[in-house]
Amino acid sequence: MVNGDPYRSASQSSDRRVINRSGSGAAPRSSAEYEANEQYAPAQAVQSTAGASSRASRVESQPKSGAKWPLWMVIVILAVALAGVLAWTFIGKSGAGATGIDMGRYQAVFLINGQIYFGKMSNFSDTSYKLTNIYYPQAETTTDEEGATATDTSGGIQLIKLGEEVHGPEDTMFISKDQILYYENLREDSRVSQLIEQNK
């Protein structure tokens, strides 16, 4: 009997059991394939972790663009300050040369009103000069027996130190440039320079 064939029934039951165990028509995996998959999975995880660490280190090692600006600005400020100091020093040293004033000597300053002053002259501002250690000439006078005062016409002069006047001025004078007719540098061996040195 075909329906009662025991061999056919057993074969069909065995096929159904194989299909149910695998979940599909594919053949079940061997133990070697499972071991290979288990070995590959840790290696893949290690590679993923290493890649993430490498990316993180690259991100940390990249300098922040904002950190460069403060340093750059500090350098610029220092450079500008240094340039200002150098310019001020240069102007201070060259100012005497530009005006023709010899800082190592005395000057004779002739004003438009006829007054003459001797002393150390320097450029004070755009509109005035500064004069220190000031003397001014005065013709020598003599007094006769009757008490009369006469002016010495022989060319003798005496230097009066500024500050001995009644109003007691300080030994510093600021002279407007438009009041100066001209000024001269005095030689070290000039009579006026020698008299000033003797009166120090």
Number of helices: 4
Which whole number gives the mean pLDDT? 71
* CATH architectural type of the domain at 102-143 and 152-198: Roll
Q: Shape, please?
A: elongated
Tell me the β content. Answer: 15-25%
How large is the radius of gyration?
A: 54 Å
Summarize the biggest pleated sheet: 6 strands, antiparallel
Percent range of helical residues? 40-55%
- Can you count the beta strands? 8
Low-confidence stretches: 17-25, 148-154
Q: Order of helices and strands, N to C?
A: HHHEEEEEEEEH
Could you please describe the fold and organization of this structure?
Among the domains are: 68-96; 102-143 and 152-198, SH3 type barrels (Roll), CATH 2.30.30. It has four helices and eight strands, in the order αααββββββββα. Strands 1, 2, 3, 6, 7 and 8 form a six-stranded antiparallel β-sheet that branches. Strands 4-5 form a two-stranded antiparallel ribbon. It has 200 residues and is of the alpha+beta class. The N and C termini lie far apart (155 Å). Mean pLDDT is 71; it is low at 17-25 and 148-154.
